[in-house]
Amino acid sequence: MNTTKSKQLFEKAKRYIPGGVNSPVRAFKSVGGEPIFIERGSGSKFYDADGNEYIDYIGSWGPHLFGHNPPFIKKALAEAFEKGTSFGAPTELEVRMAQLITELVPSVEMVRMVNSGTEATMSAIRTARGYTNKEKFIKFEGCYHGHADYFLIKAGSGALTLGVPTSPGVTKGNAADTLLADFNDIESVKKLVYANKNNVAAIIIEPIAGNMGVVKADESFLVELRNLCNEENIVLIFDEVMTGFRVAAGGAQEILGIKPDLTTFGKIIGGGLPVGAFGGKREIMEMVAPAGPVYQAGTLSGNPLAMAAGYAALSYIKEHPEIYVQLEKSSIYLENGFKENLKAIGKNYAMNRVGSMMSMFFIEEPVNDFKSAVKSDTALYGKYFHEMLKRGIYLAPAQFEALFISTAHTKEDLDKTINAHKESLVAVLK
Ligand code: PMP
């Protein structure tokens, strides 16, 4: 595989951009080697600066439910572009977008658009604090909620893979208000709640975690979490930045049957443009400025291009519920193919999947929380990643992430991937 141009670009990039990338995991630090630079994408594939083709399983880290550049999103963007890129004044499309979100996710009665997942989670926490008049919040080890200071306490995703669970620049004061519980362990949550009686504003969780690899919360655990929040007047926030509109049109909360008080969105909601949103119970959302006193704002929030792309994505989802059947079918096919490969080579690696999110861990025992996830042999994952890349399969360049299947992945793509998976495992295990 010739990657001369990517190498040249990376050398130059490092001179002008910290680490040569605009978001850390892209740099291949945890898998070794150097990043490839992408030139264009189409459907299930993208192409690098040297012209190499890859079947893409990160889909820009989740947004591309329909693959790259689907015609209906392109069309919506082109139409919006003709009218102007941003006005800083309200538009009808924002109203339609908000209404559509409330239709798809019934726990959301009101919603505020923002520009990223981080803004969504940050604003949800502030709103919960304002609503309850309490200061601390609980998060779970291995869950990632973006890079606001008080989330970077044993965070998942890039912060986990790079081995910097906390970051310089985060103050002790910030860290003191973040309480850390164990995923899937209600006793660890209760302990914190009772030790901080009447001072826990919110509990935030990825109900299906994707940032320690894919790890689903037990339904009984979530039911107990819901009850605890009711009893203690704590705002339950589901971070559905990754799972929203991916695992079902109504997100993880639809398939788990649990209603959070607030939900955060990102990724798919922007149709590939930088968008996030947070929403939930009317009574809580009416705390947000200018309806209420909790300040939250954004120069480009709800801008017409982002709304056009996001609205096109969500409308497509609403009008085509069958896509989730198709995604499930493709995802089962890939999972079964991987499982057969593992059987053939005598390995019983943990494989977690919910809908079109999937992770294989290099550990032969179940993975159901952070502590079991980090037992995975990440060095082996790095080798496996490069073997797959050589065979034209682009996976997340880090173990503690999800593989995303899109509606654009064809049977031919999946077969090629299953074949590459087998060859790659044989190569790394020999
Ligand atoms: N929450 C979750 C669950 C995420 O997966 C992410 C990003 N991967 C974020 C929040 C932060 O979103 P963003 O990168 O858009 O700020």
UniProtKB/TrEMBL annotation:
Gene giving rise to this polypeptide: hemL
Cofactor(s) it depends on: pyridoxal 5'-phosphate
Broadest EC class assigned to this enzyme: isomerase
Organism annotation: Ignavibacterium album (strain DSM 19864 / JCM 16511 / NBRC 101810 / Mat9-16)
Record text on subunit structure and interactions: Homodimer.
Protein name per Swiss-Prot or TrEMBL: Glutamate-1-semialdehyde 2,1-aminomutase
Residues bearing PTM N6-(pyridoxal phosphate)lysine: 267
Listed GO MF terms: glutamate-1-semialdehyde 2,1-aminomutase activity; pyridoxal phosphate binding; transaminase activity
Gene Ontology CC terms, in alphabetical order: cytoplasm
Keyword Transferase part of the UniProt annotation: yes
Keywords: Aminotransferase, Cytoplasm, Isomerase, Porphyrin biosynthesis, Pyridoxal phosphate, Transferase
Pathway participation: Porphyrin-containing compound metabolism; protoporphyrin-IX biosynthesis; 5-aminolevulinate from L-glutamyl-tRNA(Glu): step 2/2
The family this protein is said to belong to: Belongs to the class-III pyridoxal-phosphate-dependent aminotransferase family. HemL subfamily.
Pfam families recorded: Aminotran_3
Annotated GO biological process: protoporphyrinogen IX biosynthetic process
NCBIfam families found in the cross-reference section: hemL, PRK00062.1
Catalytic activity, reaction form: (S)-4-amino-5-oxopentanoate = 5-aminolevulinate
Record EC number: 5.4.3.8
Protein location: Cytoplasm
